[in-house]
């Protein structure tokens, strides 16, 4: 039997000098918002497609996107791409990557394969062969090899197959980017953090106009909004997989983090307003706000605990953005539907001058409220197929009441009613 090669000392290949290709997956429906965010971060050749955005840039742009993207779920660095017809060609593609120069054999790995219209019958088999290719590359270079950890791997390798092309990526983020680090306790049904940030981006909210979440739950929308208003980098509090790569440029990343830290602003008062029926929700929201910016941040947010439909308008105009409860069981759905008219009446009575946006899986919400939405945007909250409904609650001044008779009162006040 041939002797196994002894462990050799491997020097990191330096940070690649030439332009690199990346792919950032995101919640479906937010591709264009992510493309805009990537452009602002300096990405080139930006290419939004279903479920994510491809782009190019120098290698350390990958660090910057991990630190600053509020909408991306991951940052995948493209290592290799080729046409394939069967599993062994994918094995060879992965085997030709110089894995031992990328990370140490002490790091654990996980391979994930996704495919659209691939002719291959078993993605599990492809997963296994790519894992074999990585292990074989280590075995050829040293005595040790990385082991597999499917729940908390150090290195995540993603393979994407189309009908004829295979692409191998290394995930620079590690844990998904929506795990910012401020959520340390759960309440039922929280929104994904990057979905909340993405909705704020879709509505053009940049921290200048009042924002109200009247059913804030654990405060995801408010916490993401606070981070935007304060210019806090969403990744400021968490580690990334790229810090474990052999070529990790600690100095460059420390400079990025320090610069981000030095640009944080305090949260102005009277900008963010949150409310929930449930006391525990308010307590959790407060803690999430404290986790991002201490007591000063949570004190700057006005939090109340009452029924949404009894709230007083906190400012003359602003953005109401919320994720109302939706019933999964029939009885819950029935009681929700019975409550919608009261919520709609409150919007008409109290919230003129505001734009109200609701993300929900219930397509009947606007008609239940008694409005025709100005806009509806398909969005996914995890696997849940939702719509973001927008209702413009025009202030009285927008439309002059007709001098006499004719129009019903609500129309005179300029509300956009359901037709
Ligand atoms: C789907 S959850 C919101 C989750 C939140 N977006 C998050 O990320 O944690 C809906 C919230 O609406 C609250 N709620 C239900 N009916 C309410 C009402 N009439 N007034 C105020 N809050 C209400 C519930 O207590 C719950 O926290």
Task: Tell me about this structure.
There is one protein chain. With 419 residues, the protein is an alpha/beta fold. The chain folds into 2 domains: 152 residues, VC0802-like; 189 residues, Vaccinia Virus protein VP39 (Rossmann fold), CATH 3.40.50.150. Helices cover 33% and strands 20% of the residues. It contains 12 helices and 14 strands. The strands form 2 sheets. A 7-stranded mixed sheet has the order 2-3-1-4-7-6-5, covered by helices on one side. A hairpin with a 2-residue loop joins strand 2 and strand 3. Helix 3 runs parallel beside helix 5. It is elongated, with a radius of gyration of 25 Å. The site of S-adenosylmethionine has 19 residues, from helix 7.
**What's the name of the CATH homologous superfamily of the largest domain?**
Vaccinia Virus protein VP39
Number of helices: 12
What is the approximate shape? elongated
What's the pLDDT, averaged over the residues?
91
Strands of the widest sheet, in order across it, are 2-3-1-4-7-6-5
Per CATH, the class of the largest domain reads Alpha Beta
Structural class: alpha/beta
H-E string: EHEEHEHHEHEEHEHHEHEEHEHEEH
State the assembly state of the protein chains. single chain
Count of DSSP E strands?
14
What hetero molecules are in the model? Answer: S-adenosylmethionine
Low-confidence stretches: 397-419
Strand coverage percent: 15-25%
Give the biggest beta sheet: 7 strands, mixed
């Amino acid at each position: 039997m041939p002797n196994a090669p002894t462990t050799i000392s491997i020097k990191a290949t330096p940070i690649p000098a030439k332009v690199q290709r990346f792919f950032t997956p995101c919640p479906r429906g937010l591709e264009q918002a992510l493309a805009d965010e990537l452009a602002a971060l300096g990405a080139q050749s930006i290419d939004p497609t279903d479920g994510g955005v491809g782009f190019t840039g120098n290698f350390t742009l990958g660090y910057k996107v991990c630190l600053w993207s509020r909408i991306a779920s991951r940052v995948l660095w493209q290592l290799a791409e080729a046409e394939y017809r069967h599993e062994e060609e994918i094995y060879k593609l992965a085997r030709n990557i110089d894995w031992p120069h990328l990370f140490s054999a002490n790091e654990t790995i996980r391979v994930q394969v996704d495919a659209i219209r691939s002719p291959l019958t078993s993605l599990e088999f492809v997963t296994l062969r790519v894992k074999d290719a990585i292990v074989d590359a280590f075995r050829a270079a040293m005595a040790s090899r990385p082991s597999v950890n499917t729940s908390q791997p150090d290195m995540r390798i993603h393979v994407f197959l189309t009908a004829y092309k295979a692409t191998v990526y290394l995930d620079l983020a590690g844990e998904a980017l929506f795990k910012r680090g401020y959520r340390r306790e759960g309440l039922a049904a929280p929104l994904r953090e990057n979905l909340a940030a993405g909705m704020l981006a879709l509505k053009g909210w940049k921290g200048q106009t009042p924002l109200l979440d009247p059913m804030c739950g654990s405060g995801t929308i408010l916490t993401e909004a606070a981070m935007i208003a304060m210019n806090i980098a969403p990744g400021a509090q968490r580690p990334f997989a790229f810090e474990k790569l052999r070529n990790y440029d600690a100095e460059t990343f420390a400079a990025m983090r320090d610069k981000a830290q030095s640009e944080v602003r305090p949260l102005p008062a009277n900008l963010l307003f949150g409310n929930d029926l449930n006391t525990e929700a308010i307590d959790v929201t407060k803690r999430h706000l404290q986790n991002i910016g201490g007591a000063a941040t949570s004190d700057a947010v006005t939090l109340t605990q009452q029924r949404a439909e009894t709230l007083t308008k906190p400012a003359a105009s602003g953005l109401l953005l919320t994720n109302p409860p939706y019933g999964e069981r029939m009885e819950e759905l029935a009681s929700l539907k019975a409550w919608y008219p009261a919520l709609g009446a409150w919007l008409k009575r109290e919230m003129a001058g505001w734009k109200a946006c609701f993300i929900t899986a219930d397509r009947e919400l606007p008609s239940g409220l008694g409005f025709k939405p100005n806009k509806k945007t398909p969005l996914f909250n995890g696997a849940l197929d939702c719509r973001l409904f927008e209702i413009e609650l025009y202030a009285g001044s927008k439309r002059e009441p007709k001098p006499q008779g004719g129009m019903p009162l609500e129309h005179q006040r300029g509300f956009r009613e359901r037709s």
